[in-house]
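In response to a reviewer's request, we include the raw inputs and outputs for one of the modeled complexes. The three entities were modeled together in a single run.
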Amino acid sequence: MECTDVIKLVEKVWSTTPPAERRSVFSLIRKTIPNHHLVLFDGLVDNKRNGIVDNPDSKIVVLIHGIHTDGSWQRCVQQELSTINGLHIHDLGYDVVTAIQLFGPYRSTPVNRIAREIRRIKVEEPKAKISVIAHSFGTYIVSKILEDHPDIRFDRIIMCGAIISRAYPWDRNARELNKSRIINDVGTRDIWPVIATCTTGGYGSSGRRGFQSASVTDRYFNYKHSDFFEPKNNHIRDYWKPIIESGDIPTSDWDTKKGKTSFPILVASHPWIGRPLVFLIIFGLGILGWQYFSKPTVPKNESTHAIQSGDK
Amino acid sequence: MFSEKFSPLIDRFPQESDALRRIASHFEVVENRSGVKVFDMVFDPNRLFDISQAGSSARFAKVTTILIEARILSRKFVVRSPLGSAILELESWYDRPDTIYDPLTDRELELTDDDLETMYSVVPDGVH
Amino acid sequence: MLSDADQKRSRIIFNLLKEATSQQVVREFLKDKGIATSGSWEVIYSERILPALKSKKLELVDLEVLLREVEEHGRQHIFVYKCKPDDAEKLLKRSRIEDIAATAGLSHLITQPHYVEMPDQPEVVDIRLNEAPNGSGLLSLTIKVCETRESSKYVGDDFDPATSRRIKIYEIKKKRAICIAHLGLDGILELRIASRDTSKYDEQISMLIRLVNSFFPMDSFEKASLSKAKETLFNKQEELEGQVRYTNTTAKNDFGVSLNLAAFNLTKSLMDDDGSTSAIKEFLAKNGFVTGSNIWFIIPDDVERQIHTVLNGEVHEFAIPAACTPGEYSYVFRKILSFN
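The model returned the following structure tokens for the whole complex.
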């Protein structure tokens, strides 16, 4: 029996048992609860007795990390946001995803795991508004959840180092959210979204170039892929905390200073140009390499004799 | 410092760490102001819920479970005299008697479930 | 050897002890007399007390004194009256008391108390004259009245679906209750009424006065207000730390506002909380007055022993809800009077 099962059981039995019978009914049910959940069971029942109800203003922020990391930045976010009243942070993890897995076709395991965790949160805290802050592969997970798990909705979405396609249909997959609720923080020196776009399918360069969509607010920063978590930038405090706390979206000075995106980046980040180009280059290099390494090699003595024979 | 007992729990239970941190901070304030009187603190569930800003019944139950299992708080059920002081302490809701003698008014009182109040109190550390 | 009459009386006294006190108290009494203490109530009587009475290791008067101690002190509401000491001296003349007792057909009670378990009507069962050791006269007179009371105890409830009524079920029990009227040479008259499940004792006081009025004519007495004691006990809390512990205080003012302070439970002290003591001081400073307190007198030389006292109800009333010894009762009463 999991915690969630105990929570659901108490909720269900309390609401279906007449008040006069509750003491005797719960006394009987208590005997079926595993020992290690008894304190939790007693606490849940006691909350009911005392009229403790879920706060409709309760807020949860789930943090979803990227690859090659277990999300140590999540502790920084937790620390910065902990002063917000009524807010709780859940850092949701998954087994480390390597670059090979990133580029491979099998990516659903972490998506399903995160979806399951979010569903568990929703069962335990049905009234809480759930927002998400996602980085890198975490943004891909968010996009897949919105696509494949329509029962999971978010109150706000904050992305950084996003590797979602720039053509992602936010208006279809998150139609209940307007522009002020989907924030994409772009690092104009972030190379990884470009690499992800042009080396494999299913990703995009939104973390480098923005979505430039009516559904999403793009903010630009002079950052590399993980500079959002650098303490010296104070990004969490200055740019995310106001959103979570009051819905205010501070603008970035870099929006007006960033300059044009270079042509090679534009080309590389285009899924129909960059990806074929890269594959072509890789293919070409492959052919050259194959030709070079498959040329028959003649031993030195034989080649000297051949020359001498040719000379005669 | 009593409030330091919360640190390992905050590390071990990240999903409940926000609520635990808020409770720890509350204890710290009292401890700084009143010293060992922190061991006399008692909370009813609604008060502790507000302090922790747990936000939901499920999370609050998890937080109190963590604190009880760590022997920082204990949960008791008390019956109060009409004059206000607790005259009976029980470990469990299910043990409620039908009547109780109130020494403060020198009278027998009939009890219902509504007369049972939950109290979270600080577990003494053997010295206090 | 023990006569049949004495054996019968010992049985009655023992049955009354069983009703009035706990096995623990009886065991401690027997232990003090060097008598074995183990066993059930029946074993304690038949195999411990009876043989001790027969062998003179224990006297019947010892059991009588024990019964007196356990049923005459504690678990009572005490109503205090006073008269002039000169009047008290006149009332405490042996010849006067003997004449009144003779007229009322109660002379036999001066020499021997009457042990009755559940009288049909309240009756005087003991008249005790406490002589001064130097034979100069009586120091006090104690008259003991025994009555049978009915009390109802809640045992459960029943729901009748046909009538949609929930019916509460009470068990009616009969219980023996002791009331004491005690007058001392200082003019203080105590009417000590066994606790009952109500806040009003008018009926019991009237009953007791009716039975003892010939001994203590109430025209000679007036109610001794304990209001000053209540105020003093409250105002001198800090001074009395170590002697008195406070768990509840109620105060009112002339605008009908009331203030109630209660410690978390009966082991705590209001003195430990600065906020509440400041609040009530402020309230009293602005024409508030204390109307009641629950306090605990700490017995000297035994700090673990604290006698719970309720200063509440009528102006001349206080209560000791739990059992106590005569010495403890006397200590508490003297303390209250000293603050008055």
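As requested, we also summarize the result in words. Strands of chain B lie at 42-43, 73-80, 86-90, 99-102, 107-110, 116-122. Chain B touches chain C through 21 residues (CB under 8 Å).
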